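INTERNAL TRANSFER SHEET
From: sequence group
To: structure group
Subject: Nicotinamidase

Please process the attached sequence and return the structure record in the designated field. Keep the field labels unchanged so the import script can parse them.
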Amino acid sequence: MQIDAHDVLIVTDVQNDFCPGGTLAVPHADEVIAPIHRVAPLFEHIILTQDWHPANHTSFATSHPGKQPFETVELAYGAQTLWPPHCVQGSAGAEFHPALHLLQAELILRKGFRSQIDSYSAFFENDRATPTGLAGYLRERELTRVVLAGLAYDYCVGYSALDARRLGLEAFVLRDACRAIDLNGSAAAIENEFASAGVTVITSAKLSG
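Return from structure group:
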């Protein structure tokens, strides 16, 4: 796959709380950094996303007395998995992993900052309707093909890829540059959705400049 000036690499949530030792650690999460660094020089355009929650966020199990992490509750916008508190605004856990060096990134998109709604996708909140503004940014910059990497494959990366397709963008997910939570079969479930939506899963070795 030849990378050109209309492509953008979206590096998703490579933050301390999702990495080893974090409050919501994804298995082997820090292993995504090396392949991301390998492909980054191929891209003229790079965007970073950053989970950025208030301490009382509705997706935290601690906001629901009697509930435990990884249980599901019904909120105004639908089913919501409850998570351990993570990526709280201004905390060390919300910072990017110290080994991630992408100084050439043009935009850091913070998401999940509205206390009453979660945001997996880089494009929409979890109501699938409230936009983050990323679609408009890509449109104005004439970026039409997105390549996604980071954390987690079956949540924030996956939802972003599906929303990119919904918006008419080509979407590619770098499987070796992602790691999954795989909660109750969520990795297989997202791949089924990829197949239906036309999201292409490839490895970083398939990219060339």
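Handover comment: The CA atoms of residues 45 and 51 lie 20 Å apart. The mean pLDDT is 97.
Transfer complete.
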